[in-house]
């Protein structure tokens, strides 16, 4: 979830906040359980923007992520962020 919605360098933040300017903020988190996990994506949609448009962009980015996976740079940033959480 760090690559998708873990801060200003994440894919969803870059696309929805900076590129398309549809939301004020977006984040993603995971809740791991014994038999399954739940991924949650939250977006603060700007006034006047159709939430369905935001959902469509999120779906598009998820499909790209599933098809292409994370880049080496994205993985490195996620690892650094994970390790920094222990400091």
From TrEMBL:
<dbReference type="GO" id="GO:0046872">
    <property type="term" value="F:metal ion binding"/>
</dbReference>
<feature type="domain" description="Peptidase M16 C-terminal">
    <location>
        <begin position="2"/>
        <end position="79"/>
    </location>
</feature>
<dbReference type="InterPro" id="IPR007863">
    <property type="entry name" value="Peptidase_M16_C"/>
</dbReference>
<protein>
    <submittedName>
        <fullName>Insulinase family protein</fullName>
    </submittedName>
</protein>
<dbReference type="Pfam" id="PF05193">
    <property type="entry name" value="Peptidase_M16_C"/>
</dbReference>
<dbReference type="InterPro" id="IPR011249">
    <property type="entry name" value="Metalloenz_LuxS/M16"/>
</dbReference>
């Amino acid at each position: 979830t760090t690559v998708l919605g873990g801060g200003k360098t994440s894919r969803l933040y870059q696309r929805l906040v900076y590129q398309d300017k549809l939301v004020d903020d977006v984040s993603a988190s995971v809740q791991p359980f014994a038999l399954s996990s739940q991924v949650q994506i939250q977006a603060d949609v700007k006034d006047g923007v159709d939430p369905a448009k935001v959902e469509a962009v999120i779906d598009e980015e998820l499909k790209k992520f599933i098809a292409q996976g994370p880049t080496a740079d994205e993985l490195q940033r996620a690892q650094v962020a994970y390790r920094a959480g222990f400091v």
